[in-house]
Every structure is written in structure tokens, then in C-alpha cells.
Specification:
Helix content: over 70%
Radius of gyration: 28 Å
Largest sheet: none
Order of helices and strands: HHHHH
Shape: elongated
Length: 159
């Protein structure tokens, strides 16, 4: 009778450990595949990024082949210029250069797009900006909660 209890207990422990290893293994597999996706996107070339984004914009804004090619060239230049900024330098200079690159890209986009396409582009940018703005509010909504809280120093009798 004792041996039967011991065998049942041993089988239960083996099953528990098996499920534990199975769970840990599957979570590791999913985590690695997500990390792999991030690394693929991070290591993509400037050319690949420009081509992918221009193809997406072709369908989104209804661009013809010439517009798509011109847009891809503009995106490629922007990507390469931004990659050059990743080096040294102080933050203020980088910010000014980054803004200049964005302004130059915006001028090229305005020349490539028709007025209707450009209006849709501006709408997309505004929606993205609003989405990012809301994302930041949710993420940091409790940060600095008591930052502007007034303190009345005269309430204390021992001043």
C-alpha cells in the first residue's frame, strides 16, 4: 500500500515538473521570436526601410509609380541622414539637425504629392501625433502627481 502511494506521489511530481518545463520552454520560444522580430526591424537597412515605407504609402495614399519612386528616394536620403546623426554631438545640435532633415523631407513630400494626397498625409500625421500624445499620458499619468502642490508654510505654529 505504501509503495502504491509513493508511486502515485512520484508520478504526480514528474507530471508537475513536465508541465513546468513545457510552460517555461514555450514562453522562451515566444519571447525569442518577439526579440527576433525587433532585431530584424532594428537591423534593416536604410534602403529596405525606405522601400517598405514607400510601398505602404503607395497603397495608403494612392500614389502612382513615379510618385512612389520619388518618395522612396526622399525617404532613403532622410534615413541615411538620420543614421549619420546617431554618432557623437550634443543633444541641442542633434535636435536642430534632425528638425532640418524633417523639414527638408516635408518639402519633398509636398512637391511629390497632389493636394488631396498631401491633405491625407497631414491627417495621418495629426492622428499619429494625437495617438502618441495619448500614449504618453496613459504611461505617465501619475508622474509628478504632487509636483505643483502648494504648501502653506504659515499653517505651522512653530515657524
Amino acid at each position: 500500500m505504501n509503495t502504491q502511494k509513493a508511486n502515485t506521489s512520484l508520478i504526480g511530481k514528474i507530471l508537475l515538473l513536465s508541465f513546468l518545463f513545457l510552460f517555461v520552454g514555450t514562453t522562451q520560444i515566444f519571447a525569442q521570436s518577439a526579440r527576433g522580430r525587433q532585431m530584424r526591424n532594428k537591423n534593416a537597412t536604410a534602403e529596405g526601410k525606405a522601400e517598405k515605407r514607400s510601398q505602404q504609402w503607395q497603397t495608403k495614399f494612392g500614389l502612382n509609380n513615379l510618385q512612389t519612386y520619388q518618395l522612396e528616394v526622399a525617404m532613403l536620403k532622410q534615413n541615411r541622414d538620420m543614421e549619420r546623426l546617431k554618432g557623437g554631438g550634443n543633444g541641442f545640435e542633434k535636435k536642430e539637425k534632425r528638425q532640418a532633415i524633417k523639414t527638408e523631407f516635408e518639402a519633398k513630400v509636398r512637391n511629390i504629392f497632389t493636394p488631396t494626397q498631401y491633405a491625407n498625409y497631414q491627417k495621418m500625421k495629426a492622428e499619429k501625433k494625437e495617438k502618441n500624445k495619448n500614449k504618453g499620458k496613459i504611461k505617465y499619468k501619475n508622474k509628478g502627481k504632487n509636483k505643483n502642490k502648494k504648501i502653506d508654510h504659515y499653517d505651522n505654529d512653530n515657524f
